[in-house]
Amino acid sequence: MINTKELEKRWYKYKTKSFLLLFSIIAIVILLIYGGYYILYKLDLNMDKKEITKPTAVMSAVKRVEDKNITINKPMPIPTIVKEVIEKVEDKQSDIVSLSPTIPIIDLESEKAKDITKEKVHSKKTIKRKETYRKKHIEKRKKLIRAKESDYLTAKELSTKKHKILIKQDKKKIDFKRTTSNYMNIMKEKFNENKNPREALLIAKAYYRAGNYKKSEEWALKANNLDKNIEESWLLFAKSKDALGKKKEALKILIAYYNQTKSAKVKLLIEKISSKSI
Amino acid sequence: MKRSKYSDIKNIFIDTVNNDNFVELETTLFNYHILEESLDKPLKMILLFGKPGTGKSMILNRLFHNLKDKREIHYFEAPILSEKEFLKNIYESISSQSIPPNMRVNFDGLLKYCQKLKGKREIVFLLDECQLYSEALMEKIRLLSDTRVVKFVITLHKTENEDIIAKEHFKTRIWEIVELKNASIEDLEIYIQKKLIKKGFVEVANMISKKDIKFIHTYTKGNFRETNKFLYIIFNIYEYYDIYNPEKISGTTKLSKKILEMTAIKIGYIHD
Question: What is the ipTM of this complex?
Answer without folding.
Answer: 0.75
